[in-house]
Every structure is written in C-alpha cells, then in structure tokens.
Amino acid sequence: MGLHLGADPTRCSGCRYCELWCSYKHEGVFSPYFSRIKVVKDDLEKIDFPLTCQDCEDAPCAKVCPTGAIQRDESTGVLKVIEDLCIGCGNCVSACPYGYLSLNPRSLKPLLCDLCSGVPECVKRCPTNALFLTKERLPTEYEMKDRFGKDHAIAMLFGGKYKRVKVV
Amino acid sequence: MGKLYGYAGKILRINLTRMEWRYEELDKKLVKGYVGGRGFNARRLYDEAPPGIDPLSPDNKLMISTGPIAGTGFPLGTRVNVSAKSPLTGILGDSNAGGHFGSEMKYAGIDQIILEGKSEKPIYIYITNRSVEFRDATHFWGETISEAHRGILGEIGDHRTQIALVGPASENGVLFGGVFFNAVRPAARTGMGTVMASKHVKAIAVRGDGYVEVARPSDFERLVEEIEEKVYSHEQYWPRRIMGTTRILLAGNKIGMLPAFHFTRGEVDFAFQVSGEILALKNNLKVRGCFSCVVPCSRVFAYTKSNDAYSISEGLEYEALAGMTVRIGNKELYKGLEAVELLNDLGMDAISTSEVISWAMELYNRGMIGEAETGGLRLNWGDMDSVIELIKQIAYRKGFGEILSEGVAKAAEKLGKGRDLAFHVKGLEMIQADPRALKGYGLGFAVASRGADHLRSEPFIELSDNPEIGRKMFGEPEATLRLGTKGKGLLVSYYENICALVDSLEVCKNLAENMDILGYGDISRLLESVTGMEFSPDDVKAIGERIVNLERAYIVKEGIRRKDDTLPKRFLKEPMSVGASKGHIIELEKMLDEYYTVRGWDLKTGIPRESTLKKLGLDEVIEDLKKKNIEISF
Question: Which residue intervals define the domain 4Fe-4S ferredoxin-type in the entry (chain A) (predicted)?
C-alpha cells in the first residue's frame, strides 16, 4: 500500500481552504463541490474532519465500477479514474466505505484525489498544517461506531485516538 | 450584463405574505457604487424601507447579503451582513457575521436574499440552486439555537447545508435577538433576529452546488500568495490563533478601559482570573475558523459547569467574555462562560444583554431599585445565580426580564429610573470599552450609524499609542494617542470608510483593519482580479465614504441629528476613578466639530452637505431629502 493523504482533525480548523484550492487546481473554479478533499463538519460537536481517498487495498469503488474506470496506478499504488471509461453511474459513490467519493456536479465523473502527482495543493495551503502524506489508513465510520459507540463524535474530534476529555 | 465573475449575479426576493419568490438581476450600477454586503443592504434599505415604518411589521425588509469575494479562495473573505430597520433603535439595523453561509449563498447562485411580508405560520426556508422551498417549522418554534440547528440539519439530511437561525428570545420579541449562523456565529447587534422572527421565519437553510470563477486567475493567485505571506509573518498571527480577541481583557485592564462594574472602574484586580490567557492555557482543545480563513480565531474549549457536567463550547470573543465577567462584577471564569453559552443558545446579543443586566445591578446596588422591582431577584455584583435566572427571564420575557428585554433605553423610560445610567447611543447598548480611556473609540460610538458600536470605525491603531504613526497617517501625532483628542475626526472618518468598504467586500476586519494588511491598493487589485471590472484605488476609496454618507442620510430621514451623536453623561462628566486612564473624561464636542468638518457634514445639524453628497454621486439622495423638507445646507 502506497502513500495517501492523512489528516489530523485536532489541528483542522474546518476552514475548507484545502477544498477551495483543490477545486481551483483541478477544475479552475472555486467550490467545495468540485474538490477532491472534503471536510466533514459538525458545528455542534465541533468536528472538522478532512477526508480524502484512503486508497483501500480492496478498493470497493473499483470493484463495483461496471466499466472498470477506477484503476490502481501500479507504480504509485494510487487509485485513479479513467475518464473516458466512466459513465457517471455513481456506483462508486455508494460503495466508498468512508463516504468520501462524490461526483462532479457538472460532468458527473467521480472526484478522486490524485495527490497532485506527489505535491498536493491542499497540504501546501493548509493554514494549520493538518494535512500530510501517510501510509496509515483511517478507521472507517462503521469501525469507529463499533469501537466508540455513542462517543463516536468525540473520538472523531481526536482523530480516532480516543481519549477522555480532561477538564482542568 | 455579460458574464459575471465573482458575483453570482442574482438577488433572491422572497415575499412571505404571498409565499412567492423570484430572482432579480444584479444591477451593475449597484456593483460599481457599493460592491456588496453592507453597501447593497444600505442602498436597498434606503430605497425600499421608507421612514416611519414599524420595524416589527410586515413592511420591514430583512436582507442578507454577501460580497464578490465570498466563495473564492481569498483568505478571510466570507462574511455576511444582515440588515433591516432595527426594532431596538428604530434606525438603521445592521449586523455582520462570519461562518460558512456567505459562500454557500454564492454556490447557490445568489448575492442577496430579501425577505418581505410576513408568513402566516412558522416556516423555514430551504434554498438550493434551483428552488426555494417553504417548509413548516411549527415543531422547531420555541427550540433553542442548538436544538433547532440539529433538528433542521437532520430534516434536510445534508451536513453541508448552512443555516441562519433565530432563537426563542427573538420569537418572544426580545428586541436584541440575533441571527445565528452555523449555530455559533451570531449577527446579533440591533435585533436582526427579532425582525426575522417577526416574519415567522425560524431559519434560512442554503445548500448550493455551483462555483465561483475569478476573472484574472494569475493576478488573483499572486495577490493571495502575498496576503498569505503577510498574514503568516504578522506579529498578531499567533495571539489571534490562540486567544482570538479574548486577549483584550488583560491588555485592556492595563490601560484602564474595562467596563468593570458597569463602567465604574476601568481596572480590576481579578482580570487575570477571567482573562483569555487563562482560558487558552487551561481549556483550549483546538481552533476553528470561518470559511476560507487562514487565521482561525474561534477556539473550542472545555470547562466544567456549575452542575459538574462538562461542556464543550466554541467562540467566545472579548465582548461576551468581558460582558459576563468584569462588567457584572463576576470573578469566576467558568460561571461567566456558562452564562455566555446560555444567552447564545437562547439567541440574544451578548453585548446588549450584559448592559441591561449590569445596568439593573448598578441601580440595585445604589438602592434605586429593590426586590419589589426585580421580583425578588438579588442583583448583587457577581451574583451569577441571579444572572442566569435573569437571562432566562429576559429571553422568555417573564418577571423583571420583561422590562429589560426591550433594551436599556426603553427599560429606563418604563421604570422611570436610571436614565443617566443607561449606557447606550441612539438606543444601542454600549460595548465593553470605556470611551474615557479610548477617545477615538468614544467618538466612533457617538457617530456610528447603528448606535454605540466599535465595528463601524474600530480605530484600533489608537491602542498603539505611537505619535509617529499619527504624524505619518494624518499629520497629527495626537490622532494615534488613545488619550489625545486632536486629529480624532480624521482618524475615525478614515477608519469608518475602511470599515464600510470592508463590510461591503465581506472580508474579515481582522485582516483588513486590525492586522492592517489589506490597503486600498490591495483592495483595488483584489476587486479587479476577481470581477474583471475597473476599480481604481480612488473608486474604492469613494465607495466606503459613499456608504457612510448614505447610511447617515437614512438615519437623518428617521430624525437623527447632531444632538443624538452623543455619549452617556458619565463619560462626559465623571472623571475615571482608577487605573491608567484615571482622571480622564471624554471631550466629545471638540472632536465632533472636527469630525463633521472632515466628513463635510453640517456643523449644527449633522446632516451631510449637498456638496458632499454630490461629490459621491448621491444626487437622488439630495432630491429625496429635499422632498422630505429636511434642511440641507450647501
């Protein structure tokens, strides 16, 4: 398994600056809905969780693709979309265990992180250094719920490394 | 109009009486003259809300506007202005907030939302790129901010929806209810939430899937890189990230500007106990920011409540912190935090609430009112159990709270006591700074178009106390000395123009003003690269001045004259008792003369002169004022 983007939710401020510059770099416009990184937010639980492709080994998105448009780049281990093959059915979106994938609202092709060929724009732009390259895979949402039950939200806040909130 | 860059190009007008909505095209003249946000709102309010209408009637219009920068990758550029005629002051109502709402409006393809009329039953409005839905909100009516936020988000089922919301205080008719964005970022001054609730609108939810394009990408990128670099190397960067504005409490104590014990003392010995420094040191968990912010200043912190439960809370700026600690004589930080959390959840303005409570406390402690008036509440300084009870009473307009819920000016009239102790200008309660210690701020409070508020001028540079800056900027060294009086007219009008422009761009004042990073030259470059239209530095300069004058014309129509540009008696007559500003009063009249002269307003009446309005291209305003028989001098 190769490198992919990791995130530290304790550092992320939820400003979505990464989303803006990702969409700008790839699509030439500013919009979170055209971004390949997504910040999951909850204003009441104070959660800001940047989510990108974890390059799953079993790659459920690639498995369900009827035309084989999602393939792994053998040299880097990164998943990529062959746009000519993609028919925009959205099966991959439902299959993603992180709820990460979404379709470009205009072209209907999946927005899949390509790591900007090794120099990710989001990492460069992040004001709080919450993003980095890593080999570690995040637990999926189901795994989090299994492990932490109703404290799921607080566990998210601390990036899955659950610790009891210490109040002085 | 050809292809628009930056702007979405559409205005959404919603008539609640008829349950109709339509798009209007954005007028290019409006763009060139007023940029966006506060400017758009002021213009429309001037044109569409005639003087004398009842602020809480269907005739009033509530507007939410954002600017051309919102939704682009420009740092700190996504704020919104909420405006209407204010029920609290009866003049211009206008409040600004951050969050993610402004950008979402742009992605949904709108620059401004106008609400008119009144819905029959409680509703919330769900806006997307393609439609506007009126949804039943009967089951959310009465719910607190956090409950309703959770409920509406759950009903829509999309965490990317951005919500503007009012709380139970607004619904009950408390005159200083706020509109809350993202549950924790209120536009709370001047009672905009009360206007929204009077129209039976519980919330406005927006979800778009569009995008914003800029006209000259390479210029824009270069500018952003320059700004980013200036921000990251700025001396205020880390303090702001760690403490936000709460650091002002301790710093303010040093210069004796705190509103302690209802402005009787500028300095207290327990400031450190309730300071932002202590809060940051002990309780901070992480930072959060508004959309596209590179100086995230909103902090998430955990603390223990009085019932031993812990709470994770967010935000807390200086105004709320000082309001619920030093202003009411409270020495316990956590109890103050609890009170702030409560009044926010009920949907009230923290500044106005702190004034009405501290005013009542001063009357009680002077023996001017007793338990007969307060309904049995003992309002000793720092008695937080009474304060918590009183906050609830205000929000639900019960008991003694009913009188206080109309703001301090009306409360003093109703009670027939403490008129001189009611600290407000034009009906808007004063913020947490003593004008005797900050004279430029004092002048700003007196002349601000919405009442006693610092965010109309914010002459932050005054705190530097450096005469060299004053000499360089205004040719008057005293202008940047906080206890000086000369040159303050220049200082305040200069910063009022910048504030009006920045509020219309909807860029954060932290960037453009307090950190002093975005000058007129940069703003002109920014507007040109984003919109592709021509905005020279001189054009841009005139925009701020035009907005200030238009707002002045609006409040002149509502009857505001020079006599209303004043401050409460204590600041004009009683010298400060303790601290670094001991012995000072504020010499307002002298500064006012200078200010009117700089502004080009009539010295006797405070009405903008014809030549001033003409210079700014406000010919129709001259006609309008003349038609209304308002004496306007040349």
Answer: 43-75, 77-106
Which residues, 6 or more positions from A161, have their beta carbon under 8 angstroms from its beta carbon? none
The arrangement of secondary structure in A4-157, i.e. its CATH architecture, is: 2-Layer Sandwich (3.30)
Report field, pTM of the whole predicted structure over 0.80: yes
- Domain covering B234-429 assigned CATH 1.10.569.10 in the classification: yes
- CATH of segment(s) B10-206: 3.60.9.10
Question: Whose CA is closest to B162, among B86, B66, B76, B83?
Answer: B66
A-chain residues near B290 (CB < 8 A): 15
- For the stretch B6-52, pLDDT in tens is 999 999 999 999 999 999 999 988 999 999 999 999 999 999 999 89
Residue keyed to tokens 């990073």: B517
- Distance CA(B80)–CA(B510), nearest Å, equals 15
Fold observed for domain B439-627: 1.10.599
Yes or no: say if B592 and B562 are a contact pair by the CB < 8 Å rule: yes
Rounded to two decimals, the ipTM of the complex is 0.91
CA distance B272 to B281: 12
Residue B628 corresponds to which amino acid? K
Q: Which residues of B touch A10 (CB under 8 A)?
A: 285-286
Q: Are B409 and B420 in contact (CB under 8 A)?
A: no
Is the distance from CB of B199 to CB of B58 less than 8 angstroms? Answer: yes
Distance from CA of B211 to the nearest CA of A (A): 5
Q: How many other C-beta atoms are found inside a 10 Å radius of the C-beta of residue B344?
A: 27
> Among B79, B184, B73, which Cα is nearest to A48's?
B184
CB contact (8 A) between residue A14 and residue B289: yes
Pairing of β B284-288 and β B298-304: antiparallel
- Residues 21-40, chain A, touching B (beta carbon < 8 A): 21, 23-24, 27-34, 40
